[in-house]
Amino acid sequence: MNLFRRVNPNGTRTKLGMFYMHNRRLSAIPKHDSVLPVLIVGAGPVGLLLSILLTKLGVKCAVLEKSTTFSRHPQAHFINNRSMEVFRKLDGLADEIQQFQPPVDLWRKFIYCTSLSGSILGSVDHMQPQDFEQVVSPVSVAHFSQYKLSECLLNKLKTLDFRFHQGDKFDRHVEEREILMGHECLSFTMTENCVNVTCSFHKDGHKLERDIQCGILVGTDGAGSTVRKLAGIAMEGERDLQKLVSVHFVSRDLGRYLLKERPGMLFFIFNTEAIGVLVAHDLQHGEFVLQVPYYPPQQKLDEFKPKMCEQLIFKLVGHELEDITVIDVKPWVMHAEVADKFLSCNNQIILAGDAAHRFPPAGGFGMNTGIQDAHNLAWKLAAVVNGIAPVTLLNTYETERRPIALFNTALSVQNFRAAMEVPAALGLDPTIANSVHKLVTDGLGSILPSGVQRVVLDGIFRIGRAQLSETVLNERNPIGSSRLARLKRIFEEGKSLQLQFPAEDLGFRYVEGALVSDRTVIHDTEYVPTGRRRDYVPSSEPGSRLPHMKIRSLSNGSDKVMSTLDLVKVDKLEFLLIIAPVKSSYDLGHTTLEVAKKFNALVKVCVIWPEKSANGVNETPSLAGSFTNVVEVKSSRELPSWWDVCQMNDHGAILVRPDEHIAWRARSVISDPMTEMERVLTIVLGNKT
Questions:
Q1: Is the dihedral angle over the CA atoms 32, 37, 39, 44 positive or is it negative?
Q2: Distance of CA 304 to the CA centre of its chain
Q3: I want to staple 353 with a disulfide (CB 3.0 to 4.6 A). Which of 94, 370, 455, 534 is the partner?
Q4: Coil, strand, or helix at residue 543?
């Protein structure tokens, strides 16, 4: 009998049966053939991406997925700039997404209407000219359903020789590059050498169990994360903001109509018979998801039969459709919560994605934040597994990512509240609806039989929706005129639900962690999320993403234009030192390469030449010959130079991490490069005591 099935998340001495676990520090990932360095639980986009990044960095890993098949429910669908930059490095994945996504003009708008064939109350275009100019990023945002993204990621894994198994390989230890479908994580135990994970699976009609040994267990298993629960990690924040039912359906008839009459991504529909939000995942193929408020226990999920859903959709469309197929119906609850910690059990248990944070679907922060989690975590795991850094480096994953999750939670909540301003302006304050439901369920209405509660609730909501009648909501009615005027102001002032947040998507910055803080900069720590779009301003401040600028290689005579982000390779655990063609900077570059050898770390030195002096590289081959040389590519002379973009002079230097975030910068000549670079790499690689 296995007496040790649980783990104390605090790592203290714990007695279970006759077994003791002692508090200890993991010094290195064990290297035994039977112990997998990294085991990932959950094969959603975050888990799949992490497995790709780790594999490209040479880390052996495998994935457990409790489902036997991959869901085709569209779920998340907006991919922001930063995520697309990550995908751009994965063998052309960003190009595939842009090729197969709907044309931008079909999804750039949110439309507010009384029905899909009725009056338009307003529309908001969420794309601006700069979104297409690729000045701040080499790639644009995308509208691409989550299940399609997962399919693309799975194809990338196949090219990396990943194999997919059900229960046919249960008689041996799990090997690298395997995705084990239908395997549910049941428990884990901590031993002296590894994490022992027990999972179940079905074979030949029988439920079986198996143990898998790994050095580090990463939970990317979604909002209801089993790994999080087994580790005893709590969630903090706001729960039950709203309950909804998601109806996935296909109607080419509706797709054709909207393509012709009013193309858009989201349709907010308000009429006397029904209220809902329609997500147009693909107008050309007629794929939609309808989100409607759900009020249990008075409303039962089994009421949402296909026929009932069809009738509800017809009410929101404004007429019956020639074709409609309801694929599935799923209830879900909107939360705004972040795990109180992302690491547990001496950094051997790690959370990422929805397992670590749950946001309202307002602004696309959920999946995108998870993608950044994986990007941040991958290089640190690789550094630890390969013995370049101690396990304490993983502390910086939580130090860096948890504040971002908290900020994005606040921003998504603000954006969700902005979305609620529209129905409130129409006389349908959602907070009142929730209060009415609570009164019926827990207050005075609770003494009524359930059937009577349902009748009361339906009656109250019917009275509320009467505010949307043409009799009330028109310019001739003083109340309606006032409400329509308020609605117009909300749209004009950008106070409705927003889609893009460039300042946060590209400009998020780690304040502390695997970086050397720049004490010369005063940060705006008082910024409070408003739920409104702000422009991104490039920064070379430590913790920021490396600014994008178009460049061209001088080393191989190529005319190909690339991005400064391309200087960081996805398949190398390599730091990047960016310098100018200045003698003192060359000295710094050579010194950095010497210091890096002592740390068993890879560093590439890149010299960025100003456009006007590109020929200068041929004048000083002895200085630049051992470095990568690139030149700025500017479409006009008015555009700033690289060092102007970074708000630095050309006597400075920038050290970039493998995840394209800046680890350190020097704004002037360094008097003692050897001492400084030893200090920098000690801090960045987590060797400081």
A1: negative
A2: 31
A3: 370
A4: coil
In sign, the C-alpha dihedral spanning 128, 132, 134, 138 is positive
Angle at which helix 478-492 crosses helix 395-425, to 10 degrees, equals 150
| Both tokens assigned to 357 | 């944070």
Do 153 and 49 form a contact (C-beta atoms < 8 A)? yes
Q: Give the residue among 264, 309, 270, 262 at the shortest CA–CA distance from 290.
A: 309
pLDDT tens digits for range 169-192: 555 678 899 999 999 999 999 988
Q: What is the pLDDT of residues 44-92, one digit of tens each?
A: 999 999 999 999 999 999 999 999 899 888 889 999 999 999 999 999 9
Q: For the sheet with 653-656, list strands across it.
A: 561-563, 550-553, 628-632, 602-609, 574-579, 653-656, 662-666
Compute CA distances 97 → 46, 125, 148, 157, whole Å: 16, 21, 9, 16
User: In the structure encoding, which two tokens stand for residue 175, read together?
Assistant: 């090997």
- CA pair distance 342, 337, nearest whole angstrom: 13
DSSP β-bridge partners for residue 267: 111, 278
- 600, two tokens: 């068993």
Q: How far apart are CA 80 and CA 143, in angstroms?
A: 9
Q: What are phi and psi of 673, to 5 degrees?
A: -60, -40
CA distance 590 to 605: 8
Q: What is the pTM of this model?
A: 0.92
CATH C-level class of 550-684: alpha beta
Residue with token string 């960003």: 94
Residue 297, both tokens? 């226990």
Where do the CATH 3.50.50.60 domains begin and end in the chain?
A: 14-73+146-235+339-394
Contact predicate 551/674, CB 8 Å = no
- Give the DSSP H/E element, type plus range, for residue 595: helix 583-598
Closest to 198 (Cα-Cα) out of 26, 2, 36: 2
Class of domain 14-73+146-235+339-394: alpha beta
| Residue range(s) in the chain whose domain bears CATH number 3.40.30.120 | 550-684
The Cα–Cα gap between 658 and 577 comes to: 11
591: nearest Cα among 646, 670, 687, 682: 670
Give dist(CA 500, CA 623) in Å, integer: 44
Res. 478: pLDDT tops 60:
yes
CA 176 to chain centre: 25
